[in-house]
Amino acid sequence: MTEGTQRPLRVGVLGCANIAWRKMLPAMTASPDVAVVAIASRGRERAEQFTARFGGDPVVGYQKLLERDDVEAVYVPLPAGMHGEWALAALAAGKHVLLEKPAVLTRDEAERIVRLATERGLLVQESFMFVHHGQHAAVAKAVADGEIGEVRAFTAEFGIPPLPAGDIRTIPELGGGALNDVGVYPIRAARLFLGDDLTVVGAVLHHDEELGIDVAGSALLRTPGGVTAQLGFGMAHGYRAMYALWGSAGRLELHRTFTPPDSWQPVLRLERQDHVQQRTLPADQQFPNIVAAFVRSVRSGDDSATHGRSLLRQAELLDAVRAAAGRA
Ligand SMILES: NC(=O)c1ccc[n+]([C@@H]2O[C@H](COP(=O)([O-])OP(=O)(O)OC[C@H]3O[C@@H](n4cnc5c(N)ncnc54)[C@H](OP(=O)(O)O)[C@@H]3O)[C@@H](O)[C@H]2O)c1
Questions:
Q1: DSSP letter assigned to residue 129
Q2: CB atoms < 10 A from the CB of 219, how many?
Q3: Dist. CA 41–CA 220, nearest whole Å
């Protein structure tokens, strides 16, 4: 632990994913609070490639890794459509779970996972790194300080260019599609600033008949008090990741909100009636931050219910967007 009083959390990884290679495993192996003890793949070669760089034992087969007594927690960066099955298997094996976004695709799946985690006294946390970047606390403070007055509306957009054929995000059976892969970010951001009492008023999902997935979408949500959240997302777009809060006295806008590089110094743009101000915020590292937060939550046990509720609410809103778009 950071306090130097506890041994590192012993973590196993299910799947030699790109995100694990580029971001999460470098953050985990740099942390004194984590020991990567095993990395599982469907194939030996890939597992060995990962353990050669990050350490731990190469394991062939995800279930084999779950059977190990020396693994306390698992990181699951499998394709979205496999998250439910493997989160349940990991919990059944007594492991805490850091589950890549979208943690699950439906409320039913979320309920099964949260029920099992609660019964077993284990943590299951959806791995939304962006929430752990300090820039959002700076925005929240500006809003709390009244810099834009009373919040009237929230806007968020996340779009990425078309993906190569064969990418997991383009395959319906693996949980592909724009809502599951990128739409989940604006939804999570709306919850961050407007709270969980949001309802979906309307939604559109653009379905690509050839691929069999949605490639773009928009949704309108609202709070009971009438504050709106207008969300746009897609995987057939020029890159864009932003949100804005519009209030009675001004507007705040922030870009590169969901995938800021470690060295990126965010620029908070504040528009008021008679002037525009740009504030440069400190760079931050959201991957090391989420690793530290996960270890803290496992150790304390204090946040398990909060993470469970968050996972359920996120899945409920995904269901509601699909239903409003006529694709439930
Ligand atoms: N939080 C973030 O910032 C962030 C960023 C990017 C992605 N993600 C999420 O992380 C997860 C993985 O994304 P990724 O881009 O890293 O994916 P990826 O490189 O395609 O990795 C997925 C892994 O899943 C395993 N797998 C098992 N069955 C598979 C199948 N039928 N087809 C393909 N792979 C299969 C493979 O590992 P083995 O071959 O080793 O078994 C593969 O390496 C997704 O849920 C994605 O949404 C999160």
A1: G
A2: 27
A3: 40
Please indicate whether residue 127, judged by its CB atom, sits closer than 6 Å to ligand 1: yes
Looking at ligand 1, which atom is closest to the CA of residue 171?
A: 32
Domain positions in the chain: 9-128+288-317, 134-283
CATH classification number, 134-283, choose in 3.30.360.10, 3.30.565.10, 3.90.79.10, 3.40.50.800: 3.30.360.10
**pLDDT tens digits for 237-284?**
999 999 999 999 999 999 999 999 999 999 999 999 999 999 999 999
- Evaluate: CB of 81 within 6 angstroms of ligand 1: no
Pick the atom of ligand 1 nearest to 127's CA: 1
Cα 281 to ligand 1 centre (Å): 31
Alpha carbon nearest to ligand 1 atom 26, residue: 78
Contact 129, 103 (CB under 8 A): no
Q: What whole-number distance in Å separates Cα of residue 308 and Cα of residue 110?
A: 8
Q: For tokens 């989160």, name the residue.
A: 87
CA-closest candidate to residue 217, choices 228, 201, 229, 203: 203
Cβ contacts of 4 within 8 Å, gap of 6 or more: none
CA distance 203 to 214: 12
The model's pLDDT over 50-104, given as tens digits with 9 standing for 90+, comes to 999 999 999 999 999 999 999 999 999 999 999 999 999 999 999 999 999 999 9
DSSP state letters, 146-215: TTT-SEEEEEEEEE-PPPPTT-GGG-GGGT-SHIIIIIHHHHHHHHHHH-S--EEEEEEEEEETTTTEEE
State how far the Cα of 234 lies from the Cα of 267, in Å rounded to an integer: 24
Asked: is 9-128+288-317 a CATH 3.40.50.300 domain? The reply is: no
**Inter-axis angle of helices 184-194 and 135-144, nearest 10:** 40
